[in-house]
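Session log. Operator J.P. requested a structure for one protein chain; no other inputs attached. Running the standard single-chain path with token output.
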Amino acid sequence: MPDATPTRPPLPPFDEASAVIKARLADDGWNSRDPAKVAQAYTVDSEWRNRAEFVKGRDAIEAFLARKWTRELEYRLIKELWAFTGNRIAVRFAYEYRDDSGNWFRAYGNENWAFAANGLMFRRIASINEHPIDVGERKFYWALGRRPDDHASLSELGF
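Structure written below.
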């Protein structure tokens, strides 16, 4: 009988090229703001720490993301590879969003990821800080959805 376990390439162990691809695929997924689609990148028993919130399991991840993107409107994110080894990747990121009152925010953070052999993430540890910004301070202006390939990186933006 064939193995029904889904795979999500690139698969560990990661080299620099595959870690960059994995980070970009995560960037693309999160910029879709589709909780069901994003949740498929995680194992069914994946464990998260997101700020002070602890989330366990794909269903809980999907519910968390649905809540997040209900509050964080016009969400745009950039992830950038920081480090990798074996089945682990660390990224830094920044995202911008507005609340339902029109106030803009920018969040900065770091994520540590651990992957199963099939390429699904089984652990995500995120440390995030955010602050209000004026609309004129925004840096992420692409149309909602996937970040264009030619958009400045976090490093190029000076973040």
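Operator note: The chain has a mean pLDDT of 96.
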